[in-house]
Amino acid sequence: MSAVTVFPFAWRQPLVYGLGLSGRAALELLQTYELCVWVFDDRVDGLEDASLRQVQGDELPQEIDAIILSPGVPQDRPLLRQARERGLPILGEVEVAFQLLEGTVLAVTGSNGKSTTTALLGALLEATGEAVEVCGNIGEPLSRCVPGPPGRVFVVELSSFQLESIDRFRPHVALLLNLSPDHLDRYDGLEDYGRAKARIFENQESGDVAVVNGDDPALAPLAPQDPIRVRRFSRRGPVDDGCYLEDGVVYEVSPGQERRRLFDVADLALEGEHNVENALAATLAAVSFGAAPAAWQAALREFSGLAHRLQRVGERAGVRFYDDSKGTNVAATASSLAGFADGSVHLILGGRNKDADLAELRAIVERKAAAAYLIGETADELAAILGDAVRCHNVGELEAAVALAAESARSGESVVLSPACASFDQFANFVARGLAFQEFVAQVLGEVS
How far is 379 from 394, CA to CA, in rounded Å? Predict the structure, then answer.
């Protein structure tokens, strides 16, 4: 089924730059129109599709009149510099897809909790009877969801990289969950990173809603101004417009109206304080969209989280094993550890650093960890940072870390993979790392031969 009958862009020979998941999705979408599509990926030597023109080298052909950029491509590449010099549009896959959609968009960004919040919000809206597409950085690219019936609701997870290359992208409800140091190998400090995140609000208009974490002071200067309605969520105290936690109950408040009860924290299947924040954000977005709490409360109680996000994957003799491979930065790991009893965690840390200050882990690890098992490129750096704060084992490889942690842990304690680093030194991505962890856990539990 074709996405739309009229192509809204003036260009006819676009270049798809980067053939990862989102790039290939953009390519497939563009191929449904009568365009001469070019492609470039420095990891691809040839393509099976002879109808595609492939750019090779650092010279941008004159015929190209637009670039569709994959989010992982840095903005300083030679082809992009030439495109800017020629005044060509450089748009992300998300932007192109957005201009072809027939439906309502809700979008989620933040340093941590994006995927869980996005998936939960999608589940809540689906429970109300909406036709929902959960997509973006969480799984299927937005471009893959364009074909289909009109009137759907698109719940889109967005990274800062994706937000860099929007133009008209306008979510009816936009969520900014938190901000902490990440991707500092790409951005010039936290403020630069925050500005990229705040682009999620850039095109909102009167009638749209911005949902912002009221407990994160770094977000205060990033929230939009009038006429955008800004609603805040808080675990720490009342807000003027939004929702907040009080004595285990979450209430919604709106100016001039009585507060109403949204849900009880005791009813959440999700574990951890960080997931209470995710639930606050998702439910506030749902009611801001117009979804009645009675319609989604059962779905909230049933939602148990996502793979590799503090996912319990095994238990033996009172020791629980958690896969938090998605904890790829310091703040994510700190947030995950916060829900455990002091001194109870056998923590597997390490991987490839993204120019983060790993010393910021010291306080939370000293308080929460019984021992740390260090792997990957950052093992020596982490040993130097943590060595006098907690018992450290510089084991190098994940399999050895799981085996030693499982042997050392006692009843009431937990073995947690929450690396605070990227996976690319030893694994293709955080999913591959998480699956390997689960396999090694199964081995020590005797569940596989």
Answer: 6
297-348 residue pLDDT tens:
999 999 988 889 889 999 999 999 999 999 998 988 998 998 899 999 999 9
Q: CA 297, CA 264: separation in Å to the nearest integer?
A: 10
Q: Are 134 and 146 in contact (CB under 8 A)?
A: no
> What are the φ/ψ torsions at residue 98 (nearest 5 degrees)?
-60, -40
- Of 353, 352, 387, 346, the C-alpha closest to 368 is 346
CA–CA dist 413, 403 (Å, integer): 15
In 3-state terms, what secondary structure has residue 231?
strand
From 31, 27, 33, 26, select the one nearest 8 (Cα to Cα): 33
Helix, strand or coil, per DSSP, at residue 163: helix
CA distance 225 to 228: 6
Helices 273-289 and 293-302, axial angle in degrees (round to 10):
150
Residue 235 and residue 228 in contact, taking contact as beta carbons nearer than 8 Å: no
Q: What is the pLDDT of residues 53-79, one digit of tens each?
A: 999 899 999 999 999 999 989 888 999
401 three-state secondary structure = helix
Measured distance between the N- and C-terminal CA atoms of the chain, rounded to whole angstroms: 47
CA distance 81 to 79: 5
DSSP 3-state of 371: strand
Active site residues: 114, 137, 183
Relative to beta strand 229-234, strand 173-176 is: unpaired
Residue 327 tokens read as 């904890």
**pTM tops 0.90, yes or no:** no
DSSP codes of every residue in 244-300 = EEETTEEEEE-TTS--EEEEEGGG--S-SHHHHHHHHHHHHHHHHHT--HHHHHHHH
User: Please, are residues 310 and 337 in contact by the beta-carbon 8 Å criterion?
Assistant: no
